[in-house]
Design brief:
Elements: E1 2-3, E2 26-29, E3 37-40, E4 52-57, E5 60-65, E6 72-77, E7 81-84, E8 87-91, E9 96-106, E10 109-119, H1 124-131, E11 134-136, E12 143-162, E13 167-185, E14 192-200, E15 203-211
Antiparallel strand pairs: 1-2, 2-3, 4-5, 5-8, 6-7, 6-9, 9-10, 11-12, 12-13, 12-14, 14-15
Length: 213
């Protein structure tokens, strides 16, 4: 196979041109010293450029690979752990800044990016906003749905509390992972105002609701 002109895989053959585009042809000789030439179509692979974004909910941080031309990625969460995959989450142990590095790979090689990520405890109100927590309908007749879209990991606890502070419902969901959608039937409770408290390793939030008949 003879390179007539152009640029090659991952790096230009003569390091002369940028961007790396094919501007020539490659011919394959069918036999030694033969004048017969068969055109072939070359494929050039672009070098990988590592990059990622993240979203923080308290000590749990969701990471998304946004690299260019990456076939696979590996994550390094300071000295605390590793992971692989385009979308991963990691729970940091305390409020602090942590160095997160990601190595992106393709057939040309690899590229590494490191960024400082801040994990912190957040307020009850802010935690509910980040979860996109919804309790509906409100008011209701004692039956309602609780849902949130943001993925959480770990034990979740849902409590229903009356205005005197008594806990009327205490439901534990062990080793929960992902979003949440559940319907509750509290038709045995009297009409009035109540509080729903949702607790997780990442934080706690509350919602008021009214039972009206």
């Amino acid at each position: 196979m003879t390179l007539v002109a152009g640029l090659g895989l991952c790096q230009p053959f003569d390091y002369c041109c940028d961007p790396r585009t094919w501007n020539g042809a490659i011919h394959y000789g069918t036999s030694a010293c033969s004048d017969i030439r068969t055109p072939v179509t070359p494929t050039a692979s672009d070098s990988v450029q590592a990059n990622f974004t993240w979203n923080t909910i308290s000590h749990t941080v969701s990471f998304q690979n946004t690299s260019l031309n990456a076939d696979s990625v590996v994550w390094f969460f300071d000295t605390l752990g590793t992971a692989a995959g385009d979308s991963v989450t990691f729970q940091f142990p305390q409020t602090d800044s942590f160095e997160v590095c990601m190595i992106a790979y393709n057939s040309c090689g690899s590229d590494t990016i490191c960024q400082m990520v801040w994990a912190e405890n957040i307020s009850v109100e802010r935690f509910g906003e980040l979860l996109d927590l919804r309790l509906f309908p409100n008011p209701n007749n004692g039956t309602f749905t609780l849902s949130f879209l943001q993925h959480l990991k770990g034990d979740l606890r849902v409590e229903i509390i009356d205005l005197s502070g008594r806990v009327l419902l205490n439901q534990l969901y062990t080793n929960h992972q992902g979003a949440f959608d559940n319907t509750y039937d509290l038709n045995h409770l009297a009409s009035g105002m109540y509080q729903l408290r949702l607790s997780s390793p990442d934080g706690t939030t509350m919602r008021s609701f009214v039972i009206s008949r």
